[in-house]
Amino acid sequence: MPRKTKTKSGDSMTSAHLPLCRALEAIREERKTKERSLPARLRSRARWAKLRAAHRKQNPLCCNPLGIHSEGVVVPASDSHHIVAIHDNPARAYDINNIAPLCALCHSHIERLERKGVDTSIYFNSTR
Ligand SMILES: [Zn+2]
After folding, report:
1. Which of 36, 121, 51 is closest to 84 using CA atoms?
2. CB-based contact 75:62 (threshold 8 Å)
3. Which of 79, 89, 90, 92 could form an S-S bond across to 107 if both were Cys, CB 3.0 to 4.6 Å?
4. Parallel, antiparallel or unpaired: strands 79-82 and 12-14
């Protein structure tokens, strides 16, 4: 005999509903994953986390691409920025030469410029 429970909305539900609920939840999760943008999906992978950690270890300081920080001022990097954006070239998502260490302030300025359509790659090392 299925056990009855009440949902948050007060509806009565039996344990027979649980497999259906779980299936619906799995479908919703799958849909959510598919709906996420390609950059978000690539950044959510363990490969990105490992690459970012390795890059941060080698490059712990903000590269100050816009000259915001005064000469000699050392600011720790908190963000890893894709110089060529993932949506422009997904093949370079995990290219360590396509990552720049930035502090949150510099990253927000760079992203603001990108939203205005500025090619910000010019602010980083030109050998990329
Ligand atoms: Zn900075």
Report:
1. 121
2. yes
3. 79
4. unpaired
Cα angle 93-96-100, degrees, rounded to a multiple of 5: 90
Neighbours of ion ligand 1 (CB under 5 A): 62, 75, 103, 106
CB contact at 8 A, 106 and 68:
yes
**114 CA → ligand 1 middle, Å:** 16
Q: Compute the distance from residue 104 Cα to the ligand 1 centre, in Å.
A: 7
Q: What are the sequence ranges of the domains in the chain? A: 12-38, 45-123
The identity of residue 18, as a single letter, is L
Q: How far apart are CA 96 and CA 118, in angstroms?
A: 22
Rounded CA Rg of the chain: 22
Q: Which two tokens stand for residue 2?
A: 């299925």
What mean pLDDT do residues 27-53 have? Answer: 84
The answer to whether the CB of 95 falls within 8 A of the CB of 64 is no
Pair 80, 52: CB distance under 8 Å: yes
